[in-house]
Protein 1
Amino acid sequence: MKLALVGDIGGTNARFALWCDDQLESVRVLASADYPGPEQAISAYLAELGLPLGAVDSVCLACAGPVSGDLFRFTNNHWRLSRAAFCRDLQVRELLLINDFSAMALGMTRLRDDERITVCPGLAEADRPVVVIGPGTGLGVGTLLALSDGSWRALPGEGGHVDLPIGSPREAELWQQLYRQLGHVRAEDVLSGNGLLLLYRSMCALDGHAPRLHSPAEVTAAALAGDALAVAVLEQFCCWLGRAAGNNVLSLGARGGVYIVGGVVPRFAELFLASGFARCFRDKGCMSDYFSGIPVWLVTAEYPGLLGAGVALQQEHSRRMGGA
């Protein structure tokens, strides 16, 4: 029986696994910079497992950006892909490309209880949309819908590129500082790994501090060590994430809940849970009561994008079998 392979392609790393019996096997993480393209990375992955070309029948890759047509250029690394050439070179019958946050959203359907932390308690309404939002290399936003046949649909979007929301005079001052540097200020400009450093530098400029931290990791480490300015930066980061998540809930009627994903927030989970996120999430004036009972979770699962790619591939096969 032929195998299925799933991949989650990021800006720095490419994660691959075999998808067998509704679960991941043989997960490996490869540095994207070490390979000229996905075909070479997958060939190396298969070789490490002792599998020849042709052993894999189906592949699903989760990729940043809109996916359509034969040619695809990865937006967060140097790779590019032709569907036809990929299938020919790897002797693969089927290649499914999906948006990375569609995969992330579908991955939420396979979470264990110990892979999420409750941020805001509540009861998810099963027939309403779910928001999946996460700061990482950028800010990803996806929507998850439960369908009547028991399957799931993930709606891709570019919600990380919406305008950064302003909810207080202090935030307006910070926005002006950011605007002087960037012009148009997107949510992603702040709510991402590099955005954390930009926010730190903007707060330093606004408050007259000389910046002494030079990477997002240094800002996070300083905050965890109790540095007051770094703590204030993370607090503002969490507040803006709350406002962005709340805006998505209102736009979508997402009473199915909110999942906070990505690689940034879990690094300071305790500070996040104690932050103003929940307050800013609900801070919508006359619509604040709408948020009563909407649950929010912080996801700690290691490979949710890979899980979602597996779900996408499995559902694609089920649809084809149903239509046969």
Protein 2
Amino acid sequence: MLDKNPTFIRALLTSLFSLAIYQLSGRGRGGNVWVSPTDYLQFPLLLRALFTIFPASRLVFIRYLFGIAVMNACRHLLGKAEEKVRPKQPDDIYTVLDTFDQLGRQKSQELKKVGDILVTTSFVNNEVDVVIERNLELEKVTACIMASFETIWTRFLANHDSPTPFLDQYLNCWLHSWVTTSNPPVSTIRIVGMTANFGLL
């Protein structure tokens, strides 16, 4: 409803939050679609910002800021277990599961996707509308995510949309550090961070 109706979006006040019980036309990368399972947390959040205080080159960081809000919510609700919940660039949320052998010894770690963050934008005159769609288990985490994101978003705008205060926190918990290329010649590349403009690796 929000993603495909820019005229409707312009008539709404921001920041608008809508909690959905069912999602019948979910959209992901590459045109993937799905019908949501029951008992999942899913909602859109509509934000609006002026380009005079929020240039287009910084829009990419909204998904990372929201990822931090999810990590903060997990820390609040789960304690040390939050270290098992990690962002995977650009928009996935994973949990790290420990597997054990028959004697109870840790055998390996397995990654399982538990959610994603989809950010869409529409531009009108000198403003940008941003819609964040979230799918995540554990319904009780809603209030924690929104409270955390409100604090982060306010600080982000107050710092003239500079991602610097947040990048270290995001990079310390993400799943990327090394990437092996798939096309010849095969090589291993170390990812050391992201640029302050456009969020390039």
Protein 3
Amino acid sequence: MFALFISGSTLNYFGLNYSGNESVPGWKIHPYVLLAFSAMAILGLPFGKARSRISERNFCVPFVCSAAIILILIIRSLGSGRQSLGFAVDTLVSVFWIAAVVPYVNDKGAKTIWKMGLTFVVIECVLAIIEVVGRMNFIPIDTWYGGYFRATALHGHPLNNALVLLSVAVPIQLSANRNISFFIFVLVIGALSAFGARGALLVYLLFNTLLFFRYGLRSAGRLSIVLIGIPIAIIVILSMLFSGALGDRIANVGAYDDSSGVRFQSVKMLGNVDFGSVITGIDPDRVARIMEKSDVSVIENFIVAYIFMFGLISTSILFLSIFVSIKRLSRSIEGQSEKLLLVVFFVFFATALTNNSLVTKTPALFLCLIFGWAAGRVRDGIARQKVSFGDSKFAPPECHKI
């Protein structure tokens, strides 16, 4: 609830300066992080008759990974140049803590989380569309977008909104029935257009194209529906995008502009650094000089930013830790739903490459893990009910298969 509806931008808006250099004591860490840590501590320590889960692999693997990442953060913050890595607690470390907790949530809890995610998707998308139609921001932020209006919805920065939205919408869509899935698709297209998130929009459209073809390949009748429906959908979507009805910027969805150029320039910056520095990381002052030389104000690629901050070795350990934790979590989900979790994270990282949200305080990865897991558990519950009902007319509606 805190991660979904009470964003860092909301805390900033109410004067808590969550993302700034000064703040009310205790508010530099978001409440969802504190709750995740508390839940992990309760599971890991024996209280009364409750036994510790520390010896179980579902708990132990993400716990050990979090300890390794915390150690890396401490070493990097104490080294030369003193990296500012406060964002990593909310953005990265909390992910391992919640990964240690969610395998012990029951099916009822998973359904509640799933419904909460669907509610968030509807509210987030409706707010974004209202903002762009009314040319107003519910949570104003101090960022200039040139002549383009971009919605800020619940999570402030448009690109952060786009990443957070897809983190929740994709797993919900994959585990919903066809009607709800289509409803989510329409809302998300509108919201991403309102955010002006061209990279996220491209990833989402490609993902759904593959999903529709996968659906069509299941039978000749469905394939014919897809082959007829996709051209119509393309015409409708392109007409909407290029009309500027949901944002002037998205009408330039295919244009190569300064925003597009800085993403390529961010990657090219690695060529200006010696191999040894790439391996070990670079101090902030030197990074600032490299950015100034390359005429880049923001590194719009989180992997490049991580290599500069942590070094290639530590970045590889970080990605390996995330992968191991996801694999461990996927084993707590039965049947085909394990594939769902991997697909969700693939879409997430493809979207994350289009902006630098993961170099800031964001719940995106945290939410991706929670709702990827919850969607898998909900799918498993539907599958089990179908087995119980057999071919009965009372069987629950079918959700998408990966």
